[in-house]
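Batch job 17 of 40 flagged for manual review because the log was empty.
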Amino acid sequence: VDIISVGEAEKSFVELCEKIKQKEDYTHIPNLWIKQGGVVHKNPLGNLIQLDELPFQDWEIFDHRRIYKPMSGNIGRTGCFELTRGCVYSCTFCINEMLNAVHKHKSYREKSIPRFIDEVAYFKNRYGLEYVYILAEMFLPTSKERVRAFSRLWKEKVGLPFWCQVRVEGVDEENARLLEEAGCVSVSAGIESGSEEFRRRTLHRAMSNEHLVKDFRWLKNTKMQVSANSIIGFPGETRELIFETIEINRAADPDNIMIHVFNPYRGTSLYEISVREGYIPADHLAGDYRADFTLNMPQLSQQEVLGLHRTFSLYCKFPKEMWPEIRIAEKFDEEGNKKFEELSA
């Protein structure tokens, strides 16, 4: 590897290409670390780009069949468009914790609603889009004026079904209604852990369980398909804490349950805690949050976490009198696999 980008690369990459083309020295471009002649030039971070400065995406460089994507059980011409970048929150398992620290909590930016609407409308008209995936870790919360403007302009100029992700802090009755009216057919929000105390102390997510369940109910009162994201296997987590997460999923009652296994990504507080507690070696490389669990914790084995991962939705959706059967399905042996297949069917 000769060059890496530290932070955003839109401006840096263009400048790099121009300097290479002109055969000029490129070792001092902001945001780039460049290895040349055995020396690594670690350049400082440049200014963050404002989203309205970015040009529209260029889809002409791709085969047009690439526009087709599977979403919500269908395959259609789908566009992915960035509405915001970054996050004002600093959850300890997320890259935004590091970005907020590096950029002194200035990494969150919003694309203006008129600009965003014009971009989506352009691609709808040019490529016959049928569905939109809105890229925004912070679609909600934001100002009421911004949500109202989005809902109104989307209906007027785009009118396509879309998926988005929200945080429960930004959900209330009006915002849920405005999303539905605009055309949102699928929305997801994070629960992560069901323990208020663990969520606040370890994950830096300060909402109460009462508030969290109430906000999911606002979403459930619409026609939107509602998904909840949770994570199990956090450093220091116990089986009892995981069942608190199961219980709050049962109370929130989302249509879809997205359950992930914790992976310690570098640059996050939970990576440092995992190393300090001896759960992983210092040179550890994280795996896939959808399937891998690599922490070595005395109170919660790897097999137990993976077993709870595969049966999590069963615990959430089945009556409690069936929990003893579900526990059998946690085991990755012949009896457990057979029981899991039976319950899944």
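Reviewer: the log was empty due to a logging misconfiguration, but the result itself is present. The two ends are 48 Å apart (CA to CA). Unflagging and moving on to job 18.
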